[in-house]
Design a protein that fits this description.
Elements: H1 2-44, E1 47-51, H2 57-69, E2 73-79, H3 81-91, H4 93-102, E3 110-115, H5 123-130, E4 136-140, H6 143-172
Antiparallel strand pairs: 1-3, 1-4, 2-3
Helix pairs in contact: 1-6, 3-4
């Protein structure tokens, strides 16, 4: 009878250990997926500052340098109105015909800015501070994409915290004597 109790205990311990290992591997998988999602969404995230009217080339260079000099900016590039029209022509030729009815090229020049990872949680405040650099006609970004990036980052941090806590708990747990000294 005692042998059956020991066998049941061993099976229970094995099942418990397998469950914990599976849960740990699941948390690791979720954390990696969060990191991958955050990276993919961040690499495509841009804030576009549209200029009001025509701006002389020297002023464009100064604005570009001012944007690049900010610590919140990881990359910035100027897109002229001609480049914007050419890109629109490649992506949606039918829309170019509709735009041509309004004027030759009604698209304004713009700066595409890729914010640094550290700037994303306080993006609105940074955009407010960058608004003083020039007379922008509009500032655009994808709020849903920003929210997805920040959520993926939060969930990834949470998974790392849970994994660390589980690891610490497993190391702090009392050990059963093995009889080997």
């Amino acid at each position: 009878m005692r042998l059956m109790g020991t066998r049941a205990r061993v099976l229970w311990v094995f099942a418990f250990a397998a469950s914990v290992a599976l849960a740990g591997q699941t948390l690791i998988l979720i954390e990696r997926q969060c990191r991958s999602l955050e990276s993919a969404l961040s690499s495509d995230f841009r804030v576009v500052f549209f200029l009001r009217g025509e701006v002389p080339e020297p002023r464009v260079k100064v604005l570009e340098e001012k944007l690049r000099a900010q610590p919140e900016v990881s990359a910035a590039r100027y897109v002229s109105s001609d480049e914007a029209l050419a890109a629109l022509r490649r992506e949606d030729p039918d829309l170019v015909d509709a735009v041509a009815l309004v004027a030759d090229n009604p698209l304004p020049g713009a700066f595409e800015v890729r914010p640094s990872a550290e700037a994303l949680p306080r993006l609105s405040a940074w955009i407010d501070s960058a608004s003083g650099l020039a007379d922008w006609s509009d500032v655009r970004w994808k709020p849903a994409q920003l929210q997805a990036i920040l959520r993926a980052r939060l969930y990834g941090h949470w998974m790392r915290l849970v994994l660390s806590s589980l690891f610490c708990a497993s190391e702090a747990a009392p050990r059963a004597p093995t009889g080997i000294e």
